[in-house]
Inverse folding.
């Protein structure tokens, strides 16, 4: 405290920070990247452990015997689905009733803001079917959910068959202290969204759905089951939910513990766990696994039906069976016993899962990185913005230099008007509002005048508005009197740097992965852009580090991490698809990534673009 309270020492510290500002910023950036890359090194991570005492032991005896019968039920479900041309509602109701469940249905409909070309749908209508197994040993105030989406074609029929087999087996057990809800939802996430809104009496997305006639208790946890074929080689755990939310780490620990006990081959991000962490290939494998989690979390979209449960504070995950043609095989009976063991442990919960971590990264299922370990990487990047703000503040407070005649430099002395700073801020954010609203509102006009589909119209309009924002400096200076002053761009940059620091800090607290990726690209722009740098080279760098190009690079990087490289043409088409899906996710499920980029991040980047062309 003496260092800051003593005026002489304080001036000396400020002088040191401003004199060495650029080297310190470079060192902080390199240290932040190095810190993040070191998180995947196993000695720097923590080994997973069960924090919840009620789930601390896997000493339960799993006896589920009906794997083959479940597959037969799945084939029967597939035949009725093909005959009905969709969800076989009547057959499901009768089958669940025959297994002793209280069965209810929910119809729903949703008109998308524009057609979803990936799944070829626009007017969506469907029905959810769910059965409730009432708890025989408790007052029925709590519930667990097991769901299986009804997808088009031959996908996931085995999951529905196993769900019905587990329902029949659970019905004959007497130790359940919680209601168990068996849900088959149509149209994947849209059907799940309708069911959750109906269950919790909310309507946040404007979807039409019929009220639920039957309810269980307060939902404590949920699992969504996806099986790709009759032959399963490994079980993959999917954790990433809406807006980067993650379930309590104990849910992942529970899955891993039972996989180890039963002998099921388990993967995370589709990758097997390796033990050679001290080798280059082992470390590279951990980095790829962790980066896949970072990229998925940063997207803000739910990567399974479980992702929508998390917004209701329900711990949920998706368990996905994969047939990767390995020699190792897992039969359906073993998968049923895995789920039985997990639900028997969740049945023991006396309170919601809360003792373990909610903010973490995982380089493997056996190790994790807590928020206390990965936040310093972001902090090292964020401190660069504060150092640059301090440097600008000192420059603005320093008296202007004098000419040879002893008269203060008029350009340096002239103080900027409020209009010179307020105008770029207003125009930048109006451009962001246009980027958020115009693609949806102008799609019909674009389809009438150009030979494009509605989805293409939305995406191309978004790109057009984004590109038009590059004319911002010219629009700004038309509203200003004369050239921008030297003090003016410094004040504007000070505001922009502090704005970016607050924006990235708030984003990283909600979704660390998104905040860190944005910081990697925007912090160098914010730190070193001035009107005095070479214009062409600097403009090129700014465009490369803009949010749109960051998304484009992320598309190719994600494919490389998945070991599915693509050509530039394929990547461009995938890039356009990602933009349309991001807009759809916002309007359908409430994903915040699109409005965050359009209304806040892009206008902030435009401020630095305006500073580059200040003179």
């Amino acid at each position: 405290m003496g260092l800051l309270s003593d005026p002489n020492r304080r001036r000396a510290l400020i002088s040191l920070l401003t004199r060495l500002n650029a080297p310190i910023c470079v060192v902080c950036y390199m240290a932040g990247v190095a810190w993040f890359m070191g998180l995947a090194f196993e000695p720097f991570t923590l080994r997973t452990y069960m924090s919840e005492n009620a789930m601390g032991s896997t000493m339960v005896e799993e006896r589920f015997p009906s794997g083959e019968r479940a597959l037969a039920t799945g084939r029967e479900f597939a035949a009725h689905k093909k005959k009905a041309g969709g969800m076989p509602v009547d057959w499901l109701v009768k089958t669940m009733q025959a297994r002793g469940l209280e069965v209810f249905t929910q119809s729903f409909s949703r008109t998308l803001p524009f057609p979803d070309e990936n799944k070829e749908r626009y007017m969506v209508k469907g029905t959810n079917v769910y059965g409730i197994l009432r708890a025989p040993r408790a007052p029925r105030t709590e519930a667990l959910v097991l769901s299986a989406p009804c997808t088009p074609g031959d996908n996931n029929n085995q999951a529905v068959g196993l769900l019905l087999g587990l329902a029949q087996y659970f019905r004959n057990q007497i130790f359940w202290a919680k209601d168990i809800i068996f849900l088959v939802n149509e149209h994947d996430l849209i059907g799940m969204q309708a069911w959750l809104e109906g269950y919790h009496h909310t309507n946040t997305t404007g979807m039409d759905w019929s009220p639920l006639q039957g309810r269980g208790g307060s939902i404590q946890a949920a699992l969504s089951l996806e099986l790709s074929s009759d032959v399963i080689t490994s079980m993959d755990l999917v954790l990433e939910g809406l807006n980067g939310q993650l379930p309590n780490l104990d849910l992942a620990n529970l899955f891993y513990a039972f996989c180890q006990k039963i002998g099921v081959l388990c993967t995370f991000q589709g990758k097997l766990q390796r033990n050679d962490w001290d080798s280059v290939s082992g470390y590279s494998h951990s980095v790829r696994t962790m980066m896949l989690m970072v990229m998925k979390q940063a997207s803000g979209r739910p990567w399974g039906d479980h992702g929508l449960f998390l917004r209701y504070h329900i711990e949920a995950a998706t368990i996905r069976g994969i047939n990767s043609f390995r020699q190792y095989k897992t039969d359906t009976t073993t998968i049923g016993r895995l789920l039985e063991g997990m639900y028997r442990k969740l049945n023991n919960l006396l309170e919601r899962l809360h003792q373990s971590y909610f903010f973490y990264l995982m380089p493997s299922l056996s190790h994790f990185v807590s928020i206390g370990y990965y936040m310093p990487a972001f902090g090292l990047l964020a401190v660069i913005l504060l150092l640059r703000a301090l440097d600008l503040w000192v420059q603005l407070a320093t008296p202007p230099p004098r000419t040879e005649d002893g008269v203060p430099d008029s350009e340096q002395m002239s103080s900027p008007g409020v209009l010179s700073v307020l105008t770029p801020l207003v125009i930048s954010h109006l451009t962001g509002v246009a980027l958020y609203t115009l693609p949806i509102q102008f799609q019909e006009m674009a389809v009438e005048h150009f030979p494009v589909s509605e989805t293409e119209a939305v995406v191309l309009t978004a790109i057009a508005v984004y590109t038009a924002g590059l004319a911002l400096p010219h629009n700004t200076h038309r509203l200003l009197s004369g050239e921008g002053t030297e003090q003016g761009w410094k004040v504007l940059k000070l505001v922009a740097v502090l704005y970016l620091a607050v924006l990235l800090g708030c984003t990283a607290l909600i979704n660390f992965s998104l905040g860190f990726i944005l910081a990697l690209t925007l912090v160098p722009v914010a730190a070193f852009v001035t009107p005095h740098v070479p214009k062409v080279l600097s403009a090129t760098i700014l465009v490369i580090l803009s949010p749109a190009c960051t998304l484009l690079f992320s598309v190719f990087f994600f494919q490389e991490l998945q070991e599915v490289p693509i050509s530039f043409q394929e990547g461009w088409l995938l890039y356009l698809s990602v933009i349309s899906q991001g807009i759809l996710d916002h309007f359908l499920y409430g994903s915040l990534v699109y409005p965050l980029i359009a209304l806040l991040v892009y206008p902030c980047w435009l401020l630095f673009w305006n500073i580059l062309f200040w003179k």
User: Anything to note?
Assistant: The mean pLDDT is 87. The chain has 22 helices and twelve strands. The two ends are 42 Å apart (CA to CA).
